[in-house]
Every structure is written in structure tokens, then in C-alpha cells.
Amino acid sequence: xxxxxxxxxxxxxxxxxxxxxxxxxxxxxxxxxxxxxxxxxxxxxxxxxxxxxxxxxxxxxxxxxxxxxxxxxxxxxxxxxxxxxxxxxxxxxxxxxxxxxxxxxxxxxxxxxxxxxxxxxxxxxxxxxxxxxxxxxxxxxxxxxxxxxxxxxxxxxxxxxxxxxxxxxxxxxxxxxxxxxxxxxxxxxxxxxxxxxxxxxxxxxxxxxxxxxxxxxxxxxxxxxxxxxxxxx
Length: 233
Prior knowledge:
Number of strands: 8
Order of helices and strands: HHHHEEHEHEHHEEEE
Mean pLDDT: 78
Structural class: alpha+beta
Strand order of the largest sheet: 1-2
Radius of gyration: 23 Å
Low-confidence stretches: 57-61
Helix content: 25-40%
């Protein structure tokens, strides 16, 4: 028996086991209450099988990796293998209400901060789908959202929020740029000689958790001269 959960639950080379992963049935019943991201990680273990070991009919050759990434339709329109799309279909994610209060700073923390300190709370609504990359290399798709390791909710880390604010700050000063003021607010710029100093700037940020629906997008880089797609991902 393996001590690694993903290895112990890794997929085998037959349709029955592949079909049961999305529904957490049969040998994968242990995944029933697991976060959907864990199911996706277990699902991707099937991509290690070589294409020659899993074929459909000679006329329509579909590799196991493709089935995992796209799913497959069975007879009479019934999904035989739901794959990764079946796991995330109509998935709504959000931080549990009971935990939100712990990630929302209250005014009481200002008592221990220097005079003049204040809190800013900003709510954002996306106009277009948000894309980010996670640290996981073990996943069915190439473009995955960065998620919190505990709650499996898409989020931006505090460092990422601060970096984006620094970038927005610099974009506001096209002609006259105040570098000293940037250092006071955000701290030393990455790569600067005083980067290792204890000073981190007066701005502190909290993680940003996203609430909403997740799905799949096909990203196809465009050739700016020909205005056509190059290599779909």
C-alpha cells in the first residue's frame, strides 16, 4: 500500500474505472467527499499511460489523455467518460462563510498600528474571465487557476495583489515618475540593491478570493500580422 494518496488512487487501464472517477463510484468512492480539485488530480494520473495501450476503433483513435481532457460521448448521447469537463461542469466556488471573517481584517487591528493607519476594502466584479497559473504541475489541463491549498478556491495571493498594485501605480506616472514614493509605499523594487532590507513599505495586502463560476477556455495565441490563430492550447 502506498502512503501517497494520489498514487494509491491512480487510474487503471479500463473504461469502468475511468468512467467512475468523475462520479466517485466503485474503487473511487473514497473521493466522494473530497474537493473536486483532488478528483482532477487523480484523473490526470491516467495520462501517464501510453497511447498504444488504450485505443477505440481503428477508424477513430482517441488517446486516453484526450478522453481525460475532453470527455467522450457514449451511445444515445450518454456520456461514457466525463473527464475533466465533467468534473468542473457548472461548478460554483467561493470561500466558506464561516471562514470569510478570518480573512477580512477588522478595524480593531488599527490599535496596534502607527497613527494614521487605515483599512481599504474593495470589492471587484470581473468583466471578462480571469486566468491565472497555479504551482501544480500535476493536472489535466495546461491553464489552471491558482487555488488556495486548503479551501481549493481560486484566489490571488497577498504578494500577487501587491505586485499588481505596484504595476498600476507605475502606469499612472508615464512622464513624471516618483520612485522614492513608490519605495515608501510598496518597498524596494525587485532586483534592487536594497531589496534585502527589512523595510517592506507601508502598504500591506490580504489575499483576494474569487466567488463565482469556473469553466474552461480555449486559448489560441493570435498572429498580429495575419490575425489568425497559431497553436490552440
